[in-house]
Amino acid sequence: MDLERIKALIDLLAQSPLAEIELIEGDDKVRLVKTPGSREGSAGVVMAPVMPAESRAAAPVDPQAEVQAESPAPASGHAESEAHVTEAPMFGVVHLTPAPGEAPFVQVGDTVTQGQVLCTIEAMKMFNSIESEFTGTVLAILVNAGDEVESGQPLFRIGR
What we know:
The protein contains three helices and eleven strands. It is of the alpha+beta class and 160 residues long.
């Protein structure tokens, strides 16, 4: 990613009400976060390192209690310890279908493979495919179509 593009992203973030932007293009990853106390129009933006997908997947998932409240017992009989949560890698709007009026990418009960598209997140008019990091069954969809999500927010629970 070139320096001019990064500078443009910094200016865009500084002028917007967003708190952070994360952009992933191939192997290039940039995450920009407004510093505490910065306001719209100010240049209080810092670049933060972005964890590789493997590290995000291995990070402990805190919202399991909330997930259990929505779905106390997985229908397929999978143990809770075998469930994996797919998290949003960026801030944006979730789209559960490829286009309006089309069938959803996945539904509860579907079997998915590693690398299969689960949804897209729209950020800065760009649609980013969110792929499953696991092979298994979709146990829960934790967001609704059109929801604004934050980086790290749980999207799907997938059991093995």
